[in-house]
Amino acid sequence: MNTLNDEKRRELSAVRAVMEAEGIRPRRSKPTSSGRFHYSDRDEKGRPRNLGFEWDGAGFDDGGRLIIIEAELNGSLNASHIQSHIARLPLMISAGDSVEKIIWVIQPSSRRQLTDIISNWMAFFEPALKIRMPEMAIRSPRGDPIPME
User: What is the pLDDT of residues 10-35, one digit of tens each?
Assistant: First the structure.
């Protein structure tokens, strides 16, 4: 049994459930690559620079707003992993991706841990970077809403 593949399948299933529950259509034709974002520019010598970010899913709601979905279903939450996702947002926003909402998919028992991680980062990021950070929401692997507080 390949555990990594089983974990990824579980996350993809949860992402699909959330997309269906929220009425989100994937931003790419292949839903498994909907969360890949690629940015490029050139350095001062004209050489290409590339930066890629991978989320578990992304798509558009009925109003055409960009929604990102990140599933964290493998046991205890890893604070630095979640922080690295949040740290990507200012770069994505400044590159022109108007991220409206992040939906975190977790086990209900992890809600408090996740909200503590998110709230601390959001409290520092918005005023320091002078940008509006996206709305945050939480859902279960079945797509059911989990209150932030």
Answer: 999 999 999 999 999 999 766 567 89
User: In the prediction, which pLDDT does 7 show?
Assistant: 82
- Residue 63 vs residues 16, 54, 92, 106, 110: alpha-carbon distances, Å: 19, 23, 20, 25, 30
Q: How does DSSP assign the chain, residue by residue?
A: --HHHHHHHHHHHHHHHHHHHHTPEESSSSGGGTTEEEEEEE-TTS-EEEEEEE-SEEEE-TT--EEEEEE--SSS--HHHHHHHHHHHHHHHHTT--EEEEEEE--GGGHHHHHHHHHHHHHHHHHHHT-PPPEEEEE-TTS-EE---
What class does CATH assign to 3-146? Answer: alpha beta
Considering the entire predicted model, what is its pTM?
0.90
Cα 3 from chain centroid (whole Å): 22
pLDDT at position 3:
57
